[in-house]
Amino acid sequence: MRAEIITIGDELLIGQVINTNQAFIAERLTAAGVSVEKMTSVGDHPELILQALREAWATRDIVIVTGGLGPTHDDVTRSALCTLLETDLVADERVRERITLLLKARGMRWSEAAEHQTYVPRGMRIFVNPVGTAPAMVAEREGHRLIVLPGVPYEMRELLTGSIVPYLADHLEAPAIVHRTLRTTGIPESLLAQELGELDSLLEGARLAFLPSPRGVRLRITVHESTSAESRAKAERIEQRIRDRVGEYIYGVEEEELEEIVGALLRERSLTIAVAESCTGGLLADKFTNVSGSSRYFERGVIAYSNRSKTELLKVPPDLLRRHGAVSQEVAEAMAEGIRRMAGVDIGLSTTGIAGPGGGTPEKPVGLVWIAYADGASTISVHRRLGDDRLRIKDRASHAALELVRRRLMEPG
Amino acid sequence: MRAEIITIGDELLIGQVINTNQAFIAERLTAAGVSVEKMTSVGDHPELILQALREAWATRDIVIVTGGLGPTHDDVTRSALCTLLETDLVADERVRERITLLLKARGMRWSEAAEHQTYVPRGMRIFVNPVGTAPAMVAEREGHRLIVLPGVPYEMRELLTGSIVPYLADHLEAPAIVHRTLRTTGIPESLLAQELGELDSLLEGARLAFLPSPRGVRLRITVHESTSAESRAKAERIEQRIRDRVGEYIYGVEEEELEEIVGALLRERSLTIAVAESCTGGLLADKFTNVSGSSRYFERGVIAYSNRSKTELLKVPPDLLRRHGAVSQEVAEAMAEGIRRMAGVDIGLSTTGIAGPGGGTPEKPVGLVWIAYADGASTISVHRRLGDDRLRIKDRASHAALELVRRRLMEPG
Fold first, then answer.
1. Which of A74, B94, B302, B333 could form a disulfide with B372 if both were Cys (CB 3.0 to 4.6 A apart)?
2. CA quadruple B395, B401, B404, B405: dihedral sign
3. What does the alpha-carbon distance between residue A35 and residue A38 come to, in Å, rounded to a whole number?
4. Predicted local confidence at residue B271, as pLDDT
5. What backbone phi and psi angles, to 5 degrees, belong to B325?
6. According to the model, what pLDDT value does residue A115 have?
7. From CA B409, how far away is CA B265, in angstroms rounded?
8. Are B12 and A29 an interchain contact pair (Cβ–Cβ within 8 Å)?
9. Least CA distance to B254: which residue of chain A?
10. Which whole-number Å values give the CA distances from B131 to A314, B8, B68, B135, B159, in the listed order?
11. What local confidence, expressed as pLDDT, does residue B69 receive?
12. Best residue in B5, B18, B181 for a mutation probing chain A (most A CBs within 10 Å)
């Protein structure tokens, strides 16, 4: 199965927006056993869109188109689709229902633009958009498939993973390619490679990709045997070998986020937690509360940015702040113990560091972060050097704090 | 001048790498007055590369190719170039000198791979790579230009801005295209289109793109007149007309973020702020503290997730919580006033809502959020319906809270 991805939008052609949709689609198609041969981007010009569609439709088994489906006047994709498929637009009842529901939920009235959006090329199969208005649409002709997705990234992602990938899985042969992703944190790529050691016998001919990101390195195993059962079995063997060697750094698989893993551990054990943040500035609480049902274990958070707030909200002794400074092991531990006591929870978690760009000194440079964990029985703390980019420091520090909780909860006894 | 950008590399086609080169080149070409009509990506396959080159070379004034020039075995671009230009490879003395120098500086010896890299298609103009080995190369034929750049991002950037853009400036007329982006929030795309009304007279032939995102719609004006002075003047006229019609929704231009705008307003006026969050769970504080220097005005934040924490940390009367529920105008206002008093700051800001997926009722559905602002003189509050996705509700509610502060601070008197 050979595919082409066509992304549409003037914003791409002037370089205002980086084409993340393209990479996301390519990754998912590859994982589904489809080989992406070409990716094309054109602006909102009817002739250029039609030309790109025609070329792709004539030469590939699967053509995925995204962008140019919004409610305003720059929507030209739909008419290009009609020309290509030699059909006209027809109002779709399910799309109308969805838009009605969405407008109602947002307290908005029906408009001409909404009416316009209910029209889809006649004969295309429709997948309703669970998070927006423009649906996904599929045309099938002589074994060729044309798949059209909205361009708003989160809508595209939702429809691709929720509707199109399952649709392709139903209609294509089961891919004998199996991917498995293991998510690590707290170990750099080079060290991870070293710990894994000799790869030939580990992999038995399969492939292993190291995918680094600011939060950690993902390991992607790709196995291609003659049947999917064989591929799955081999992937499991390889995963087990990798876990034997570097298991302590692996916190999850596939798309699992660390905050979900930690949340599940807290729920399982009926533990409650509260956080006291300085340098992470709310991001740690934000991660905790991104998880549905987190109100069961996340009791409160405090962003004690000023020294005064550290004293008032967390009862950090002013003397401790004076002697060791706000960014210190002592203050991190006092913050974790303080929030635990104030909130009356099982676990207190804290961060304090220098997010920069200002405020660094030779002894306490930008990027230095102290993280502490207190559970009444004991208080532990770690420090990290997390680079020199403010947003990255906040992100990595929050991740490291979550990882500290995970490791503590996973400890035997 | 119509251009096409061709990027080459298997890593793009499997979605392992996001194509940032493409956007960078597109942005620089656009700024140089070149109109990018199409962008194409293909893997390291000789036939697919040649086919993409042929199509582009036949139809565009400028073709920029990047990738596939590295020292490893996947270098197939060079031979495709020779086929396209009907020429052969020839060793280049300046490239040899450059590679010799670089290897010496890195303490490395001359190798077969290095030798291989000295060969370039005969007749192409060479721009030596100041930060790597592979040079930039240009072919000119009957007014068409083929420009080849290495794929390593920083080498590509260096050669593009240092050599190719100046080369194009010498050979092309001055750019007459001007872009201007206005960022709006608090108004959906369809309503924004309605408020802008009839576009033909507003735009005088220029183009306007609506770029929606969960936080708001960006409006991008594109003007193409015969001189850049004319284009700029017209873009300003159009911007003014747009501001006359929907100015209240515009919070910034180009890449400005709302939290930066609000931070600048607070600093200008020497005001301090503290936040009390329920449904946004730390994200509002996170946004505030993403801005460098925010510690000057951001004093503290409290994430009062439980009712108990609302009472303890913000002195919200338990009776108020019982009578109106945590998600209510009364509690939102008590939270804003509470955090203002507790923190001793000028402004208190609060959010309370139902982020879902559980917890909704017919009267208070998932997505309902109350936001309050208290400055001692008065307390104001707004409510919003923000869809049904937990993360998006958090994001939109934080954005709406920032926007409430911006609007309040911008009010006359």
1. B333
2. negative
3. 9
4. 98
5. 85, 155
6. 86
7. 7
8. no
9. A16
10. 51, 20, 17, 10, 9
11. 58
12. B18
Q: How many angstroms from the chain centroid is the CA of residue B37?
A: 20
Q: Which of B207, B285, B313 sits opposite A300 (nearest CB)?
A: B313
Mean pLDDT of B368-390: 95
DSSP for residue A4: E
Residues 6 or more apart whose Cβ sits within 8 Å of residue A233: none
C-alpha distance from residue A405 to each of A261, A289, A373, A386, B65 (Å): 10, 15, 7, 18, 48
Whether A25 and chain B come into contact, CB under 8 Å, resolves to yes
Q: Nearest by CB to A285, from B13, B292, B303: name it.
A: B303
Which chain A residues are Cβ-neighbours of B199 within 8 angstroms? Answer: 73
* Model ipTM value: 0.78
Which ranges of A19-146 does DSSP label H, i.e. alpha helix? 20-31, 46-59, 77-85, 93-105, 112-117
Nearest to A306 among B29, B300, B385 (CB): B300
* B175: Cα separation from own chain's centroid: 23
DSSP 8-class letter at B21: H
Q: Answer whether the bond into residue B188 is a cis peptide, omega within 30°.
A: no
Higher pLDDT, residue A64 or A11? A64
How near does any CA of chain B get to the CA of A226, in Å?
Answer: 21
By the CB < 8 Å criterion, does B390 face chain A?
yes
pTM: 0.77
Angle at Cα B360 formed by Cα B308 and Cα B323, nearest 5°?
45
Cβ contact, residue pair B19, A24, below 8 Å:
no
From A286, A408, A413, select the one nearest A348 (Cα to Cα). Answer: A408
Residue A48 to residue B39, Cβ atoms within 8 A? no
pLDDT band at A67 (very low <50, low <70, confident <90, very high): confident
**How far apart are alpha carbons A155 and A149 in whole angstroms?**
8
pLDDT of residue B74: 44
Work out the minimum CA distance from B37 to partner chain A, whole angstroms: 6
| Residue B216 at interface with chain A, using a CB cutoff of 8 Å | no
Distance of alpha carbon B139 from alpha carbon B87, whole angstroms: 11
Predicted confidence (pLDDT) at residue A71 exceeds the cutoff of 60: no
Q: How far apart are CA A31 and CA A352, in angstroms?
A: 40
Tokens of A189: 């790529």
What distance in Å separates the CA atoms of residue A269 and residue B390, rounded to the nearest whole number? Answer: 25
**Which of A89, A82, A79, A39 has the alpha carbon at shortest distance from A62?**
A39
Q: State the best of A305, A310, A327, A335 to mutate against chain B, taking most chain B CBs within 10 Å.
A: A305
- Burial code (b: 16+ CB inside 10 Å, e: under 16) for A359-374 equals ebeeebebbbbbbbbb
Note whether B11 contacts A: Cβ–Cβ < 8 A.
Answer: no
Q: What is the pLDDT of residues A185-238, one digit of tens each?
A: 988 877 898 899 888 889 998 988 877 777 888 898 988 888 888 999 999 999
Q: Scan residues 232-271 of B and list those with Cβ closer than 8 Å to A.
A: none
Nearest CA in chain A to B55: A55
Cβ of A45 under 8 Å from any chain B Cβ?
A: yes
